[in-house]
Design a protein that fits this description.
mainly alpha
Length: about 100
Amino acid sequence: MEIMQILGVASVPFVVAVVHELLRVYKMIVDKKVPQESKEAFVKLIPLFAGVLGLLIGVGAYFVGVLGDSLPKAILVGIASGLGATGIDQVAKQLGK
């Protein structure tokens, strides 16, 4: 297996981890800066932000040459990885109950 293929496979968990951490920062900012009555609206945007962040990281990884052999594939992998970060957060919440 060629090194770029290995990096391509490893880039999916990397995108998930980066998006997950950025969403944690977003949640901390919302908790501290947004009034209680407005928080629900900001929390509902989390999956959208996750998809957009994943998309941006996926496109960036494509242009670096790490993720995918085509731009549409990199976009889809990025979005799926970003949304996967939201799912991982929910799994952690449910196991913590």
